[in-house]
C-alpha cells in the first residue's frame, strides 16, 4: 500500500522552516531566561543563609545562652530551622528545629543543586553548614514559596511562548503566502501556456521579489525565442517544400514531354535533358546545404588555417566560372583556429552571392585584414543592392531580395544562411552595408 505524501509547496516548506527557526530562537531565549532565573533564586537563598551566619558570628562571643537566643536567628512562621553545636558537645535547636532536621535527613537532595533538599514531608529546604573553632551552625531555610514562585514564572513564560509560537506561525504562514503568491501565479500561468500553446500567452512579471521577476523575464525571453524558432522551422518547411516542389514539377513536366513527343520530335530531348540536369544539380546543391546547416559542429577537427590562402583559393575557383572580375587585397600570415572546411564554405558563399547579383561587366572586391585580434573579411559588389528593410532578412533560409523566388538568378537561397551559421559558430559578427555608389558590402568579423 502506497502512502500518499502531501505536495510540498513553497509556502508549506518556507512556513515549516520559519516555524522551526522561531522555535529554535524561543527555546534558546527560554533556556537563557531559566538559567538567569535559577541563578538569581539560588543566589537569593545563599544571601539569606549568609546573613544568618553573619549574625551568628557577631553574637557568638557576646552570649553563652544559646538556648534562649537560637530562635532569634530564624523565622518560625516560615518553618526555618537552626542548629548550634558547641565544641563541648552541647547542641541547641530553634523551635521545632530538631524535627525539621530529622525530616530533612530522611529526604533527598535536588539534582545539580548541592544545597537544596526535599524533606520527608515534601517541603523544599535550602541547607548549609558553617564550622568555627568553638561551634558549628547548621541552617535549613524553607524555600517552598520561592520554588513555587519560580515554577509559576516558568509556567507563565512557557505559556506565553506557546502563544507567541502559535501567533508567529499564523503570521509566518500569511506572510509567506503573500510572498509565494507570485510563484503560485507563475506556476498556474505556465500550465495555461502549456495547455494553450496557440494563444501566445506570456508570464506576468511581478515587481517583487526581484529574483521571481528575473525568472519570469528570463522565461518570457526563452519562450519568445522558442516561438520564433518554431515559426522559422515552420516557414523553413513551407519554403523547402515550395523550393523542391517547383523544380520537381518542372522536371516531371519535361519527362512527360519526352514521353509524349520524344519519338516524333527528337529535337525536344536535348533541351529537356539539359533542363533536367540543371534543375537536379540545383536541387542537389540545395539539399547538401540543408544538410550542412543541420550537421554537428564538432564533426571536423579544428586546426590553424592561413585565412589568406583559403580566400585566394576560393577566389581562383570562382573566377574560372564567372564573368565578373574579382579583385583582392589580402593581408599575409593571418592565422585562424577553425575547421578548414567551414572557412572555405563561408568565403565561397559570400563571394558567389556577390557575383550572382552583379552585372557581368562589373567588379567584385575582396579584402582581408586584421584589427585588434579580429579578422575582417569584406566582399563588395556593384550589383542591385539590398534595401535597408531587407538587410536583416537575407540570412534567412530561402530568402531572395527580388521577392519573386524565380529561377532567373540561380541559387538555393541557403548560402547566406550557411554563412550566418558558421559565423555564429565562431562567435563572430556580420555587417551588411551599402557599397557607394552602387552595390552591397558584406563584412565578416571573426575573433582570433
UniProtKB/TrEMBL annotation:
<keyword id="KW-0472">Membrane</keyword>
<keyword id="KW-0812">Transmembrane</keyword>
<keyword id="KW-0902">Two-component regulatory system</keyword>
<feature type="transmembrane region" description="Helical">
    <location>
        <begin position="153"/>
        <end position="176"/>
    </location>
</feature>
<dbReference type="GO" id="GO:0000155">
    <property type="term" value="F:phosphorelay sensor kinase activity"/>
</dbReference>
<dbReference type="InterPro" id="IPR005467">
    <property type="entry name" value="His_kinase_dom"/>
</dbReference>
<dbReference type="InterPro" id="IPR003661">
    <property type="entry name" value="HisK_dim/P_dom"/>
</dbReference>
<dbReference type="InterPro" id="IPR050428">
    <property type="entry name" value="TCS_sensor_his_kinase"/>
</dbReference>
<dbReference type="InterPro" id="IPR003594">
    <property type="entry name" value="HATPase_dom"/>
</dbReference>
<protein>
    <recommendedName>
        <fullName>histidine kinase</fullName>
        <ecNumber>2.7.13.3</ecNumber>
    </recommendedName>
</protein>
<dbReference type="InterPro" id="IPR036890">
    <property type="entry name" value="HATPase_C_sf"/>
</dbReference>
<keyword id="KW-1133">Transmembrane helix</keyword>
<dbReference type="InterPro" id="IPR036097">
    <property type="entry name" value="HisK_dim/P_sf"/>
</dbReference>
<dbReference type="GO" id="GO:0005886">
    <property type="term" value="C:plasma membrane"/>
</dbReference>
<dbReference type="InterPro" id="IPR004358">
    <property type="entry name" value="Sig_transdc_His_kin-like_C"/>
</dbReference>
<keyword id="KW-0808">Transferase</keyword>
<keyword id="KW-0597">Phosphoprotein</keyword>
<feature type="transmembrane region" description="Helical">
    <location>
        <begin position="20"/>
        <end position="38"/>
    </location>
</feature>
<dbReference type="Pfam" id="PF00512">
    <property type="entry name" value="HisKA"/>
</dbReference>
<keyword id="KW-0418">Kinase</keyword>
<dbReference type="Pfam" id="PF02518">
    <property type="entry name" value="HATPase_c"/>
</dbReference>
<feature type="domain" description="Histidine kinase">
    <location>
        <begin position="239"/>
        <end position="448"/>
    </location>
</feature>
Amino acid at each position: 500500500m502506497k502512502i500518499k505524501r502531501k505536495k510540498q509547496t513553497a509556502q508549506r516548506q518556507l512556513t515549516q522552516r520559519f516555524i522551526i527557526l522561531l522555535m529554535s530562537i524561543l527555546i534558546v531565549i527560554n533556556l537563557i531566561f531559566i538559567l538567569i532565573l535559577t541563578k538569581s533564586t539560588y543566589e537569593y537563598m545563599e544571601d539569606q543563609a549568609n546573613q544568618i551566619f553573619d549574625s551568628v558570628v557577631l553574637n557568638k562571643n557576646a552570649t553563652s545562652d544559646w538556648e534562649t537566643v537560637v530562635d532569634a536567628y530564624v523565622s518560625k512562621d516560615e518553618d526555618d530551622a537552626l542548629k548550634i553545636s558547641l565544641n563541648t558537645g552541647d547542641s541547641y535547636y530553634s523551635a521545632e528545629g530538631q524535627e525539621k532536621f530529622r525530616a530533612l535527613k530522611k529526604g533527598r537532595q535536588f539534582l545539580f543543586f548541592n544545597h537544596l533538599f526535599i524533606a520527608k514531608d515534601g517541603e523544599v529546604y535550602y541547607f548549609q553548614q558553617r564550622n568555627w573553632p568553638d561551634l558549628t551552625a547548621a541552617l535549613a531555610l524553607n524555600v517552598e514559596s520561592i520554588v513555587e514562585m519560580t515554577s509559576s514564572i516558568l509556567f507563565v513564560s512557557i505559556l506565553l511562548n506557546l502563544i507567541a509560537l502559535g501567533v508567529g506561525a499564523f503570521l509566518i504562514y500569511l506572510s509567506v503566502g503573500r510572498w509565494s503568491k507570485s510563484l503560485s501565479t507563475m506556476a498556474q500561468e505556465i500550465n495555461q501556456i502549456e495547455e494553450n500553446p496557440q494563444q501566445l500567452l506570456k508570464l506576468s512579471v511581478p515587481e517583487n521579489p526581484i529574483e521571481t521577476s528575473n525568472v519570469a523575464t528570463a522565461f518570457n525571453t526563452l519562450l519568445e525565442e522558442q516561438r520564433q524558432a518554431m515559426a522559422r522551422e515552420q516557414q523553413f518547411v513551407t519554403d523547402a517544400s515550395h523550393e523542391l516542389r517547383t523544380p520537381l514539377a518542372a522536371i516531371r513536366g519535361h519527362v512527360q514531354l519526352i514521353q509524349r513527343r520524344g519519338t516524333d520530335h527528337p529535337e525536344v530531348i536535348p533541351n529537356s535533358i539539359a533542363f533536367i540536369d540543371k534543375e537536379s544539380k540545383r536541387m542537389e546543391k540545395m539539399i547538401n546545404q540543408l544538410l550542412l546547416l543541420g550537421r554537428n559542429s564538432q564533426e571536423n577537427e579544428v586546426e590553424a588555417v592561413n585565412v589568406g590562402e583559403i580566400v585566394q583559393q576560393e577566389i581562383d575557383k570562382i573566377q574560372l566560372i564567372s564573368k565578373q572580375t574579382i579583385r583582392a587585397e589580402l593581408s599575409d600570415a593571418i592565422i585562424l583556429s577553425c575547421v578548414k572546411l567551414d572557412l572555405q564554405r563561408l568565403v565561397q558563399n559570400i563571394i558567389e552571392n556577390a557575383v550572382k547579383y552583379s552585372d557581368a561587366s562589373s567588379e567584385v572586391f575582396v579584402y582581408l585584414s586584421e584589427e585588434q585580434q579580429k579578422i575582417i573579411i569584406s566582399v563588395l559588389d556593384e550589383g542591385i543592392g539590398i534595401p535597408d528593410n531587407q538587410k536583416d532578412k537575407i540570412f534567412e533560409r530561402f530568402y531572395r531580395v527580388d521577392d519573386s523566388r524565380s529561377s532567373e538568378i540561380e541559387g538555393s537561397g541557403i548560402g547566406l544562411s550557411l554563412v550566418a551559421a558558421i559565423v555564429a559558430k565562431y562567435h563572430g559578427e556580420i555587417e551588411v552595408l551599402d557599397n557607394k555608389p552602387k552595390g552591397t558590402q558584406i563584412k565578416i568579423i571573426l575573433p582570433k
